[in-house]
From TrEMBL:
Protein name in UniProt: Phosphoinositide phospholipase C
A GO BP annotation: intracellular signal transduction
Source species taxonomy: Eukaryota, Metazoa, Spiralia, Gnathifera, Rotifera
EC number: 3.1.4.11
Catalysis performed (reactions): a 1,2-diacyl-sn-glycero-3-phospho-(1D-myo-inositol-4,5-bisphosphate) + H2O = 1D-myo-inositol 1,4,5-trisphosphate + a 1,2-diacyl-sn-glycerol + H(+)
Length: 806
């Protein structure tokens, strides 16, 4: 164990012991409680007060988004202003944000040391959880024994057959045939008592979760594989090398330093037996196989018997430390990040040219960012900005109005949405502006403020953002007519808004071409000079046709298009749209009829070159995964370079509605959906075992859009196997997204989506790949799909699709 690991363990042990913290409420009430980290490190809670009738709240580590020091929250800000807390106590304060920044708990420690202990500890827990995948969990005795403890209703420290069968249906989401269950139970029950101890349950769990699909693959690619059982089948170095080169087309991921000190990922082809041996040394956990230069499937399983739970856990740890509680080297390897379906050199680093003009990039963009729920009620919340920024968003929206106290507010005009101060939003999101990306953040300001409050907005922006705020013009090194690049604008905040001197009559309902909604305009729309001078590059102007724009607009003039108008233009005059995106930025946003915060499909905007397709990040609908998938590319920095034929559309005559153009490399994508592992139910209160099926959708230009789905596997969310093959002909491969969705078939209501994953076709690795699925809110899960991917050039360029089963 390294020194850092020892320090982390020491910190977490102190949190498990617990400390007195004061829980602060916005009304000024204080609740001292002993907060502690649960012994299994999966949640934080506090000891129940004798005067409290309700159960203490549990803060699960998987739900915690951020831990924040000091008074950087609206609740603490209000308490300070009310005099409930002294400014001098800021060093004792911290806030835990959870549930996608929708909820928060505000705490005061007795001293700075204790406060810092909790902050460091929670940071470590968040980081550990973010890096734990199925590969790690299935070797953790705590994770496996959590199932045991949950099923042990009578606290006997054993599981009967009845308890075990309930566990399978209630927690592991599988209905196992009676004969198969009896066979597994007898094999695990080494004491022959008809009960499973914790160690025997670990053996039962590993027998249950053996990967029969991987066994078939190993039998196919090893010389004597068909003569070996699932327990002793293995690959030698030469067989592994052949598998990696011919079947996987696998490359090794190597981290290097560039000449200027930056981290860079390079990919090295696997050509030598020594490289295969290195993988065996890394992933094979069984010492015997490893020393022989062999990669096993399920290794050696050691089951031991003890009736004391504390001793059981300790023995499990000893066996794990001694490489005796194992998963296979082959499974371990295929579940690792480098063998994921996502190309790590595209997902883990910024690899694209970032020195081109801003208009040459797709930009991750949010609509009405201040909302957490629907469009008509709720509240404007600064934490919604933090959620969007930490999810990779680089362009956020603020709808600004005059506040009654002379300070500007952000709200959805003329709705029941409660306002929030403009200053609080800028202040609370400032620390998170560049956490996920160094490239510019764009503030789309829909401005309805009076001259006085516009002046106050300018003061707030300058005082909080300081040098981060772009206040002086930058010109392109080669040509001042071009927009600067993301590289030029690193760590800068750009204001995008209207700049007009024309006054309008008060209380008139108008629909502006560059506003999101019909509004009652304030008496004046004249811009105060010191606010207007911040609108350097992205000055919002009405959208006009190409000829008008070419003669009257410059590259820093930007236009917004409502969903309905954009759809009409994309059908009637797509060329004008596309050509304008080659030299200036355009933005689309959801129509006003989407009061439920639903989203339009952004792919339509992207294939027309629109840089900013604004989406309601607050909605967990079927559309948001397209955004997460699109901007998974280029290291998740929020800027993705458009294809050359879109950048140079004035030369290529690109038109997404013309399938006869030959501008991209057409591909044939062949996907075999093999199996899934550890699928969860869509909701915790649903009692039915999932009946899963997989839907594969290709999203791109109209001629490439196709949907196919597998058959339904009944009563099995644990390890359903499909083995179904699908083939897709894709003409515009650089614009195609591949969207995997796992659904639970329901005969009486709409099918529930259990999990998903979406990625660009250009990021897919070929061969046998696991897909680490995401929850509907984009949280990480331990669920996986296992697929085989083949991508070939389409020389015939046909437009057929087939589905077969084998």
């Amino acid at each position: 164990m390294s020194n850092d690991e020892k320090r982390t363990t020491d910190v977490l042990n102190q949190l498990k012991f617990g400390t007195i913290l004061v829980k602060q409420k916005i009304n000024g009430k204080k609740y001292p409680r002993r907060f502690f980290l649960h012994e299994h490190e999966d949640f934080i809670s506090y000891e129940e007060s004798r005067k409290t009738f309700g159960k203490p709240r549990i803060y699960r580590i998987k739900d915690i988004d951020e831990v924040r020091s000091g008074f950087r929250s609206r609740t603490f800000d209000q308490l300070v202003r009310n005099g409930s807390i002294s400014v001098s106590e800021e060093d004792l304060a911290f806030t835990i944000m959870y549930n996608n920044h929708r909820n928060e708990v505000h705490l005061m420690a007795p001293d700075v040391t204790t406060r810092n202990l909790w902050i460091v500890g929670v940071h470590n827990l968040i980081d550990q959880h973010a890096h734990k995948s199925q590969r790690h969990l299935i070797t953790e005795e705590n994770w496996i024994l959590n199932y045991f403890r949950e099923a042990d209703k009578d606290r006997s420290n054993t599981l009967s057959k009845r308890e075990c069968r309930r566990l399978l249906t209630n927690s592991l989401n599988v209905k196992v045939p009676y004969t198969v269950f009896e066979q597994l139970f007898r094999k695990a029950d080494k004491s022959q008592e008809g009960l499973l101890s914790p160690e025997e349950f670990v053996g039962f769990f590993q027998l249950l979760t053996q990967r029969k699909d991987l066994y078939e693959i190993m039998k196919q690619y090893t010389e004597n594989g068909r003569s070996h059982s699932i327990e002793n089948v293995h690959m030698n170095v030469d067989e592994l090398l052949s598998f990696l080169r011919i079947v996987q087309n696998q490359k090794l991921t190597i981290n290097v330093k560039t000449h200027d000190g930056r981290d860079q990922i390079i990919r090295e082809s696997i050509e030598k037996p020594e490289q295969a041996q290195e993988l065996i040394d890394e992933f094979e956990l069984d010492t015997g196989f490893r020393q022989k230069g062999q990669l096993s499937l399920d290794g050696t399983l050691h089951i031991f018997v003890n009736r004391d739970l504390a001793s059981d856990i300790q023995l499990c740890k000893e066996r794990l430390d001694n490489n005796q509680l194992l998963i296979s080297g082959f499974r371990n390897m295929l579940l690792s990040g480098d063998f994921d379906i996502v190309n790590p050199s595209h997902a883990r680093q910024i690899y694209q040219n970032m020195t081109r003009p801003l208009c040459d990039y797709y930009i991750n963009t949010s609509h009405n960012t201040y909302l957490f729920y629907g469009q008509l009620s709720g509240e404007s919340n600064p934490e919604a900005y933090n959620r969007a920024l930490l999810a990779g968003c680089r362009a956020v929206e603020l709808d600004c109005y005059d506040g009654s106290d002379g300070k500007p507010i952000v709200t959805h005009g003329y709705t029941l949405v409660k306002p929030c101060s403009f200053e609080s939003i800028i202040r609370y999101m400032e620390p998170n502006l560049f956490k996920t990306s160094p490239y510019p953040v764009i503030l789309n300001i829909e401005n309805h403020c009076s001259l006085e409050q516009q002046n106050e907005m300018a003061r707030i922006l300058e005082s909080i953002l300081g040098d981060q705020l772009l206040k002086e013009p930058l010109v392109h090194a080669a040509n001042p007519r071009y927009l600067p690049s993301p590289e030029d604008l690193k760590y800068k905040v750009i204001v995008r808004s209207r700049k007009t001197t024309k006054a309008t009559k008060p209380n008139i309902i108008i629909q502006s071409e560059d506003d999101d909604d019909p509004i009652f305009d304030p008496p004046s729309k004249r811009m105060q000079y010191n606010l207007g001078e911040l609108f350097i590059f992205l000055q919002n102007v009405p959208y006009r046709d190409y000829d008008y724009a070419k003669h009257n607009y410059s590259s820093w003039h930007s236009s917004s298009l409502a969903e309905t108008r954009f759809e009409k233009l994309s059908r009637s005059d797509p060329t004008s749209l596309i050509l304008q995106t080659t030299w200036r930025t355009l933005r689309t946003y959801p129509g006003g009829f989407r009061q439920d915060s639903s989203n339009a499909n952004p792919v339509t905007a992207w294939i027309h070159g629109i840089q900013m397709a604004a989406l309601n990040f607050q909605n967990e609908d079927d559309i948001m995964p397209l955004c997460y998938g699109k901007f998974l590319d280029n290291g998740g920095c929020g800027y993705v370079l458009k294809p050359t034929y879109l950048i140079n559309a004035h030369e290529t005559d690109y038109n997404p509605l013309n399938p006869k153009l030959d501008l991209d490399q057409a591909k044939v994508l062949t996907l075999t959906i093999i199996s899934a592992q550890f699928l969860s139910r869509s909701k915790t209160d649903i009692s039915d075992i999932p009946d899963p099926y997989v839907m594969i959708s290709i999203q791109g230009v109209p001629c490439d859009q196709k949907i196919q789905k597998t058959k339904v596997i009944e009563n099995n969310g644990l390890d359903p196997i499909w083995n179904e093959k699908f083939s897709f002909n894709i003409k515009y491969s650089q614009l195609a997204l591949v969207y995997f969705s796992v659904y639970d078939r329901d005969s009486f209501t709409l099918d529930d989506k259990l999990a998903y994953f979406c990625l660009p076709l250009t990021m897919m690795q070929t061969g046998y790949r696991h897909i680490h699925l995401r929850a509907n809110n984009n949280d990480l899960t331990h669920s996986t799909l296992f697929v085989h991917v083949d991508i070939q050039d389409d020389d015939d360029d046909d437009d057929n699709i087939t589905s077969t089963r084998f």
